[in-house]
Amino acid sequence: MSARLRLGVNIDHVATIRNARGGHAPDPSRAAEIAMAAGADGITAHLREDRRHISDTDIEHLAQLTRRRGRPLNFEMAVTDEMQAIALRHRPHAACLVPERREEITTEGGLDVAKGRNTIDPVVRALKEVGIRVSLFIEASPVQVQAAADVGAQVVELHTGAYSDAVREHRPEAAGYLEALQKAAALAASLGLEVHAGHGLDYETVGPVAAIPEIVELNIGHFLIGEAIFTGLDPAIRRMRALMDHARTHAPQVQAEGTAA
């Protein structure tokens, strides 16, 4: 199996809890420190237009913290002039372009790169010009993978929500969703794209996705923050890290189990 799979921890929902009451606690930067100490290879944060969780100040502090610790900050952002300006100001290691609607509870699907190329292309170019590594959050679709390569993105992050939901609900479509992820990852790698994946992953669903050899990074957030309420953030991340490592070491067995699900 290929090199160690990276884990990016999304800390958005630490800020969600803070904002429910106001004030400064719990502090997303403290969560980032704990995550990195527990085995996170990087930190992910989504600055939404409505600022429902991560704030501008959070991004400033996280950018400084990750630079000091020598870890990457993955800045999730909508394709807007405002977010582009913020990314260009802070210059995170990576920017992941995601679809965003005010009324959604969470990101509900992948970015439609094929239809939105005229809007996405200039943002990709502007970010790359200052050395930001550009990722596009997309569905596991050959059309979207090809479109991501065509606009010059360096990375695709495959949306794993449909697969995760199908596994948890014991629906037979799970095998088809996993196969789509496998095929999209292989195509992306063949086109020279680095492949990441994320959304909805938990202890039950992470293994078969982690076993896909072309995927080099998983970004996981909501589940880990929720699990931290019961076990603590450090143990939650360490268990996820162990499951990822096991999947990488025992890929054929784990993939077979995932297909059976």
From TrEMBL:
GO terms for molecular function: pyridoxine 5'-phosphate synthase activity. The active site is at H46 (proton acceptor), E76 (proton acceptor), H199 (proton donor). It is an enzyme of class 2 (transferase). Pfam families: PdxJ. Pathway: Cofactor biosynthesis; pyridoxine 5'-phosphate biosynthesis; pyridoxine 5'-phosphate from D-erythrose 4-phosphate: step 5/5. It catalyses: 3-amino-2-oxopropyl phosphate + 1-deoxy-D-xylulose 5-phosphate = pyridoxine 5'-phosphate + phosphate + 2 H2O + H(+). GO terms for cellular component: cytosol. 1-deoxy-D-xylulose 5-phosphate binds at D12, H13, R48, H53, T106. 3-amino-2-oxopropyl phosphate binds at N10, R21, G200, G221, H222. GO terms for biological process: pyridoxine biosynthetic process. Its EC number is 2.6.99.2. The record marks E157 as: Transition state stabilizer. The keyword Cytoplasm applies. The keyword Iron-sulfur does not apply. PANTHER family: PYRIDOXINE 5'-PHOSPHATE SYNTHASE. Homooctamer; tetramer of dimers. Catalyzes the complicated ring closure reaction between the two acyclic compounds 1-deoxy-D-xylulose-5-phosphate (DXP) and 3-amino-2-oxopropyl phosphate (1-amino-acetone-3-phosphate or AAP) to form pyridoxine 5'-phosphate (PNP) and inorganic phosphate. Belongs to the PNP synthase family. This is Pyridoxine 5'-phosphate synthase. The gene is pdxJ.
